[in-house]
Fold this protein.
Amino acid sequence: MIAPSILNANNMNLGQDIKQAIENGIERFHIDIMDGHFVPNLSYGPELVKDFKVAYPLTEAEIHLMSNNLETTLPLFVKAGADLIELHLEATDKVEYWLDYLHESKIRAGIAINPDTPVQEIKPYMNKIDQLLIMTVKPGFGGQKFHSESPDKIKQAKELIAQSGKNIPIEVDGGIDNKTAPLSKNAGAEIFVSGSYIFKKGSIAHQIAELNEALR
Ligand code: DX5
Ligand code: ZN
């Protein structure tokens, strides 16, 4: 599955770009929320998610929550209608509490890990996550280069998940294009977040087709 990240789309064309991606088969968007504290950048607020779900109730809104102020930020995105929220393992010492909170709110829960966080650290939470996001760049900005050691990390995560007997899909995010997506897929990733490659290279239809082709 391809989950476009709208972070690097042109905000003046955002509605049109989202519509085009949906017309080209996209069923989930990856919405990057940055709090200016956990990462040195700011992005969107809950109103965007709310408007998105009103316009496209059948398309999933996956929230990549780059925030360490979860008491304030996380409930806002629950209320806004997120389908899935991914919180960073590095951002809180109450991971379990928030995973439970999400499930009690009937929202799927994911954990995101930074490039320098070992995969073993997800072990205690395997029973409580619906998805694992392996960051393939340092979070904060779009348009960065895929970290070349990522496929090894994906393989390790895949093994850990297999040992647990759970069905937890692995998602990759950062520098994903028609070269790095197949590398990640071969290592075990199933969900591919892609921002600049889809929204900054001209035709969205063409870029989605290229990425689909590379992942075939
Ligand atoms: C980075 C974000 C991304 C990223 C994707 O903090 O999590 O989702 O911007 O954009 P590209 O595909 O441009 O790396
Ligand atoms: Zn992201």
Notes: The pocket of zinc ion (ligand 2) is lined by residues 5, 30, 32, 64, 173, 193 (CB under 6 Å). Residues 70 and 98 are 8 Å apart (CA to CA). The beta strands are 2-4, 28-34, 60-66, 84-88, 108-113, 131-135, 170-173, 191-194.
